[in-house]
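Postdoc handover notes: sequence design on the structure in folder B. Input C-alpha cells:
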C-alpha cells in the first residue's frame, strides 16, 4: 500500500511533479489502517482521522481512493465512494484523483473518466469511483468497497445526516467493507463527527473493546496555548514538512490582533472543538460546572424559576434554580408529531431525548400548553419557587389555562430587553465562571453551545435568538431564573455599634 501511494505524483504546490513521499506519521496511519489478521483480512473497518486544515488530507484521500480503484486494494466491480457536504468539496477530491491519473501515463490508460458525472471507471475490473454530495438518494442501492467521508464536521444534519446514514450502512455485501472519515473537529458536541471521536476515545482508553474501530485526533489540548508555536505540531503533524510555518504564524498573528479570528484559529488550525463564531461561555467553563444533582434533596430549599414559552412548534422550557447550592433543573416540551423531522432541522436528537425522558413530547403538531401548565403546577407544588420569571410572549393563552384549571403560580414578568436581561445574563455568567452553578442536563448543554449574544454600545448583553445557531430556550429560562433571584433585595445587616455609642 505504501509502495503504491509513493509511486503516485504530487500534482500541486511547490512539490508538484515529485513522487508522493509519505512522512513517518502518514506511514504509521497507513500501516494501522491496512494491517491484517492471521487470515490476511483487514482488521480496521472504520477509521476516523481528525487533523487541522492544510495537512495533506485531500491528497491522502485521493491516494487511498486510487488504491481501491486501480491499486493493491482493487477488486472486481468494486465501488469507491467519496461523500462530501457539497458539490464543490466532493469536486476537490475528484479533481485531485484525476490529476494523479493524468500525471501517470500507465494509470491514465487504465480508466475512463466521466468529468460531468464525477465518475471514474477502471477498465480492467469494472470498478467505479463516485463523488457524492448532499443527495442521499444516490447513495441508496450502492454496495461500496470503501466509503470516504470528507470533512464530516461540516455536514450538519438534515441532508448531511441522511447521506451519512446511507453511506455508513452500505457495503454489507462486501467481504471487507472499509469506512474512512477524515475531518477537522466539529464545533458541536452533538454532531456525528464529535460522536465518532468520543466513541474513538472510549475505544482507545479500553472502555469499549472494538478492534475494528480506529480513531486518531491531532489536536492542541485545552490546557495548552494554541497560539504558542511550540504547540502547533500537535494538531499539524505536517508542520515544517509541507505545512507552512509562515502561514501558521500569519494566522496566529491575526488571531492575536482580532478576537473574532481566535475561535476560527482554534477550530481549524488547533483542531479544537470550538465554534468558529465566538461562544458566550466557553465549553471548558461550562463543563466545569457539570455535576450530580439529587432532586429529592432540593425539596424545601429556597429556589427561583424561569419559564420561556416557545411558539407553536418550538421548545418550551422551565428551569428551577437553587441559589444556595447553584443547582439547575430543567424541563422542556416539544410537539410529538414530526419529531424526527424537527431533530434534523434543529440539529438536535429530540427523539433520543424524548425516549430518555429529558424532554416531554406533547401530542400533536404544536406544544400543548395545557400539558405544560399542569406540569409546571406540579413542579411548583413540589419545589415551591419564590418567583417564576416569564417572558410575556405567548403568556395570554397559558394564563387563561391556569385560570380555567384554578392554578395559582408566583409569576413575575421578566422583560427581554437589555435593562432586564443584561444583569441576569451577567449574574449567570459570574456563577459559571466562579463554579457556583451545577447542571446535569444534556439539553441545557446543547442549548448553551448554541447561545450567541447581542451587545449594545454601553456593553450590555443579552442572548440573541436571532443570532444563535439553534434553540436556546432552556438557557433563556435558566438566565431568567438566576436573574430574578439576583434582583431580589439583599437583607440589610443592622449596625448595632451606632446605637450602643449613643446609649453610652
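Designed sequence:
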Amino acid at each position: 500500500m505504501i509502495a503504491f501511494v509513493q509511486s503516485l505524483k504530487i500534482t500541486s504546490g511547490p512539490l508538484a511533479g515529485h513522487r508522493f513521499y509519505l512522512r513517518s506519521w502518514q506511514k504509521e496511519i497507513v500501516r494501522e489502517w491496512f494491517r491484517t489478521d492471521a487470515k490476511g483480512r483487514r482488521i480496521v473497518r472504520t477509521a476516523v482521522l481528525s487533523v487541522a486544515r492544510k495537512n495533506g488530507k485531500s491528497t491522502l484521500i485521493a491516494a487511498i481512493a486510487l488504491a481501491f480503484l486501480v491499486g493493491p486494494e482493487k477488486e472486481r466491480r468494486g465501488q469507491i465512494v467519496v461523500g462530501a457536504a457539497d458539490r464543490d468539496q466532493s469536486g476537490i477530491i475528484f479533481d485531485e484523483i484525476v490529476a494523479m491519473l493524468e500525471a501517470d501515463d500507465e494509470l491514465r490508460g487504465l480508466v475512463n473518466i466521466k468529468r460531468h458525472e464525477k465518475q471514474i471507471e477502471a477498465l480492467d475490473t469494472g470498478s467505479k469511483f463516485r463523488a457524492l454530495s448532499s443527495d442521499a438518494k444516490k447513495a441508496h442501492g450502492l454496495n461500496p468497497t470503501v466509503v470516504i467521508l470528507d470533512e464530516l464536521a461540516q455536514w450538519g444534519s438534515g441532508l448531511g445526516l441522511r447521506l451519512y446514514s446511507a453511506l455508513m450502512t452500505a457495503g454489507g455485501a462486501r467481504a471487507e467493507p472499509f469506512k474512512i472519515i477524515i475531518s477537522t473537529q466539529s464545533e458541536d458536541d452533538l454532531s456525528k463527527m464529535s460522536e465518532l471521536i468520543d466513541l474513538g476515545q472510549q475505544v482507545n482508553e479500553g472502555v469499549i473493546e472494538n478492534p475494528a474501530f480506529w480513531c486518531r485526533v491531532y489536536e492542541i489540548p485545552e490546557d495548552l496555548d494554541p497560539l504558542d508555536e511550540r504547540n502547533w505540531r500537535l494538531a499539524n503533524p505536517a508542520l515544517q514538512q509541507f505545512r507552512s510555518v509562515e502561514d501558521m504564524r500569519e494566522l496566529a498573528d491575526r488571531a492575536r490582533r482580532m478576537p473574532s479570528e481566535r475561535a476560527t484559529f482554534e477550530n481549524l488550525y488547533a483542531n479544537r472543538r470550538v465554534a468558529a463564531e465566538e461562544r458566550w461561555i466557553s465549553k471548558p467553563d461550562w463543563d466545569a460546572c457539570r455535576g450530580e444533582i439529587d432532586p429529592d434533596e432540593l425539596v424545601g430549599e429556597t429556589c427561583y424559576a424561569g419559564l420561556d414559552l416557545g411558539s407553536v412548534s418550538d421548545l418550551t422550557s422551565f428551569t428551577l434554580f437553587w441559589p444556595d447550592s447553584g443547582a439547575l433543573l430543567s424541563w422542556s416540551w416539544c410537539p410529538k408529531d414530526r419529531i424526527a423531522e424537527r431533530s434534523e432541522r434543529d440539529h438536535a436528537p429530540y427523539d433520543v431525548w424524548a425516549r430518555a425522558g429529558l424532554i416531554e413530547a406533547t401530542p400533536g403538531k404544536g406544544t400543548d400548553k395545557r400539558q405544560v401548565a399542569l406540569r409546571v403546577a406540579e413542579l411548583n407544588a413540589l419545589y415551591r419557587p419564590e418567583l417564576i420569571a416569564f417572558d410575556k410572549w405567548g403568556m395570554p393563552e397559558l394564563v387563561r389555562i391556569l385560570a380555567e384549571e384554578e392554578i395559582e403560580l408566583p409569576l413575575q414578568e421578566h422583560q427581554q430587553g437589555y435593562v432586564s436581561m443584561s444583569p441576569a445574563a451577567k449574574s449567570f455568567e459570574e456563577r459559571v465562571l466562579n463554579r457556583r452553578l451545577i447542571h446535569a442536563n444534556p439539553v441545557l448543554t446543547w442549548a448553551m453551545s448554541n447561545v450567541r449574544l447581542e451587545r449594545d454600545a454601553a456593553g450590555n448583553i443579552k442572548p440573541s435568538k436571532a443570532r444563535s445557531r439553534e434553540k436556546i430556550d432552556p438557557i433563556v429560562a435558566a438566565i431568567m431564573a438566576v436573574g430574578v433571584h439576583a434582583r431580589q433585595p439583599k437583607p440589610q445587616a443592622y449596625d448595632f455599634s451606632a446605637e450602643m455609642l449613643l446609649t453610652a
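Context for whoever picks this up: Residues 392 and 417 are 12 Å apart (CA to CA). Don't rerun without checking with the PI first.
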